[in-house]
Write a structure and sequence with these properties.
alpha/beta, 20% strand, 9 helices, 8-stranded parallel beta sheet, TIM Barrel, single chain
């Protein structure tokens, strides 16, 4: 029998056909405990911001930014209750996601995406937060599987007009939204912003208000397949202000996983 060897009267699979389940790398107990404490603190901060602004906790999605962190740490965060994770780069995600394929993770691409990696992004991620050009939208649409579901996307807006950051200017958003609207394989769900880094949340708040106002303007146009119900804004140091200004998605990395190494 092909692929089978006989040993002392027993038929056994030949070595090349054996599948050995290797143990997963484990984390030190103290690291797991710290991670769980961090998640609990972030949840408390989100809940407090929701109460302060008269919103429900379930209206805000927490995306844990796991870039540069190993799969075993992401797995521990999942076991602690998190379900949404964000990565910055397609290449890093490609190396990490297979080790986490057994988990029911919703993956978000939050970093800049080059159009030549659109197909890979479509295969790896459930959401793209960083749509910033018609060409990229076309590439993402073309990469869809026949008959597949629309992919949720957000337009990244560079409100600070910083040359070091991706995203389009506020005045260009409406035109791009109109161009995306007819695409059968994409669903424009809202906007994303990474404002200038400012220590005081009150100094960042005007950028969050501006993004919300921009979303309201687009929503009023009643474009087909376009909704502005999602505002991805707010990170570890300023997400309370973002929630108070209408964020539906906050992207939190350092406050959960600690400083990147």
């Amino acid at each position: 029998m092909r692929g089978v060897i006989e040993w002392h009267g027993f038929n056994l699979p030949s070595p090349k056909n054996l599948r050995v389940a290797l143990p997963r790398p484990s984390l030190p107990g103290e690291m797991v405990a710290n991670l769980r404490e961090n998640i609990a603190r972030v949840e408390e901060r989100i809940a407090a911001a929701c109460r302060h602004s008269g919103r429900r906790r379930e209206d805000v999605r927490l995306v844990a930014i796991s870039k540069t962190h190993p799969p075993e740490l992401i797995r521990a965060a999942f076991e602690a209750g998190l379900r949404d994770f964000g990565e910055n780069r397609v290449q890093e995600a490609k190396s990490k996601l297979p080790a986490l394929a057994d988990l029911g993770v919703t993956w978000h691409l939050v970093g800049h995406l080059q159009s030549n990696k659109a197909r890979a992004a479509r295969e790896l991620f459930h959401w793209v937060h960083s749509l910033d050009s018609l060409r990229l939208a076309e590439k993402l649409a073309q990469a869809a599987a026949p008959g597949g579901a629309r992919m949720p996307v957000l337009i990244e807006v560079n409100l600070g007009e910083e040359s070091s950051k991706a995203g389009i200017r506020a005045g260009e958003v409406a035109a791009l939204a109109e161009q995306i609207a007819p695409m059968d394989n994409l669903e424009l769900r809202g906007l994303m912003v990474i404002p200038p880094f400012l220590e005081n949340q009150e100094d960042v708040r005007p950028y969050f208000r501006q993004l919300r106002a921009l979303a309201c303007d687009i929503e009023a146009r009643n474009l087909p397949n376009v909704s502005m119900r999602e505002l991805s804004m707010g990170m570890s140091h300023d997400f309370e202000a973002a929630i108070e200004e209408g964020a539906t998605i906050v992207r939190v990395g350092t406050a959960i996983f600690g400083e990147r190494t």
